[in-house]
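PROTEIN DESIGN WORKSHEET
SECTION A - STRUCTURE
LENGTH: 430
TOKENS:
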């Protein structure tokens, strides 16, 4: 019977969107793998009698000798399985010592052991002539191909080894792309939780927001925000910042946002709301050093007044209409401690007069802690006020204003900010 010709598989194209980063990384890795194939191949033969299993010489497509190492059992194979090994030739008749599956009559027990020992290596199963069924089962279990021991041919075996190595790399790339797509889907679900759709139906307000994580290539950060309108017509908005920039902080930010929305819709406000959120943070944080700052506003149904609570967070900007609107900071004298710092803390609620027309900008400290030039001083709140004033005088409003603010802060800092940035803008027009 002729030696089976190895089967090739196509690698699926990468999808666009969040998975694209993973696809780029895999493409770079594929280039490295292709370069590695330019070197001579190394094969590990696992067989009771290696001297009689292979033809004397194997060569790759360029005519270079294929290096062959031999192991008489899996213990020796484990010692010889170094990173430069490209393919394993495994005799399926090799005893699977100490394997319960072998005692139960599993004819592929030794193959399962090798696949567990070397999950990243290509494997070609060697079986007796005419035992095609066993060889096909070996491929189904995880081998890249099977050959008959007593019908080996130098040319076909060399080609089988090359094809098996390529097929394993193809399988690995396909699996990693699939994992990348799953991670992208998970990130999108988390992002939807972190960047919510405000519940403002019926409110005479316009809402805009911008969000940018500080971590390289990240979709999520520790900043969070939300806005809802309760049945009595009050509009509640908040913005917060969990210290740190990793996935744990991002997850905690999502939990705090969801808790805030649930508690707000349940009727809690001010000090009672913040105290409950602190309890949530204390139970959910992974380290006792983790804290979160928070700014909440509750805007009266007539839109002219608001209650302000600050928990270690910078005060919002209030912008009133005029020929050249001048932004100013809301009072921050009653700023309470950040959540998670002081057990039993209190957070006073400050009453603020807004007027008939206004814009209210809530932001996280990522907007003011960037540098005004590489290595220069920080922008700070004064610098932010000047920047927003100038952009307002240029006629920027709403989403355009937020986009310009975040873009300029990044540009001043040298294009990349180390901290997350979130900005929320509420507008009320007469």
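SECTION B - SEQUENCE
RESIDUE ASSIGNMENT:
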């Amino acid at each position: 019977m002729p030696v089976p010709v190895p089967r090739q598989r196509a690698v699926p194209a990468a999808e666009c969107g969040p998975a694209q980063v993973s696809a780029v990384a895999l493409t770079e890795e594929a280039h490295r793998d292709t370069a590695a194939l330019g070197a001579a191949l190394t094969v590990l033969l696992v067989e009771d009698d290696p001297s009689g299993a292979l033809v004397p010489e194997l060569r790759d497509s360029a005519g270079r000798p294929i290096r062959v190492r031999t192991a008489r059992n899996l213990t020796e194979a484990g010692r010889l399985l170094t990173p430069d090994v490209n393919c394993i030739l495994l005799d399926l008749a090799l005893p699977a010592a100490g394997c319960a599956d072998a005692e139960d009559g599993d004819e592929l027990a030794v193959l399962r052991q090798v696949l567990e020992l070397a999950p990243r290596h290509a494997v070609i199963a060697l079986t007796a002539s005419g035992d095609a069924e066993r060889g096909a089962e070996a491929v189904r279990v995880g081998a890249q191909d099977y050959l008959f021991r007593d019908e080996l041919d130098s040319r076909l075996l060399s080609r089988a080894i090359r094809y098996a190595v390529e097929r394993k790399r193809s399988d690995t790339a396909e699996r990693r792309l699939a994992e990348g797509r799953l991670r992208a889907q998970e990130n999108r679900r988390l992002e939807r939780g972190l960047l919510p759709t405000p519940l403002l139906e019926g409110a005479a307000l316009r809402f805009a927001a911008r969000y940018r994580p500080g971590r390289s290539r990240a979709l999520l950060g520790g900043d969070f925000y939300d806005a809802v309108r309760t049945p009595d017509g009050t509009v509640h908005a908040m913005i917060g910042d969990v210290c740190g920039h990793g996935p744990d902080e991002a997850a905690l930010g999502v939990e705090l946002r969801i808790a805030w929305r649930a508690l707000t819709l349940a009727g809690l406000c001010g000090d009672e709301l913040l105290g409950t959120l602190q309890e949530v943070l204390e139970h959910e944080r992974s380290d006792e050093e983790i804290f979160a700052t928070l700014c909440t506003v509750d805007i009266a149904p007539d839109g002219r007044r608001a209650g302000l609570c600050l928990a270690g967070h910078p005060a919002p900007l209030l912008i009133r209409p005029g020929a050249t609107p001048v932004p100013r900071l809301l009072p921050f004298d009653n700023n309470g401690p950040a959540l998670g710092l002081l057990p039993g803390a209190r957070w006073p609620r400050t009453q603020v007069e807004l007027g008939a027309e206004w814009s209210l900008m809530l932001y996280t400290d990522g907007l003011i802690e960037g540098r005004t030039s590489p290595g220069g001083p920080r922008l700070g709140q004064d610098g932010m006020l000047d920047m927003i004033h100038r952009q307002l005088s240029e006629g920027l409003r709403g989403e355009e204003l937020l986009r310009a603010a975040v873009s300029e802060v990044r540009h001043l800092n040298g294009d990349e900010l180390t901290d997350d940035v979130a900005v929320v803008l509420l507008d009320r027009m007469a």
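SECTION C - NOTES
The first strand starts at residue 42 and ends at 46.
The first helix runs from residue 20 to 37.
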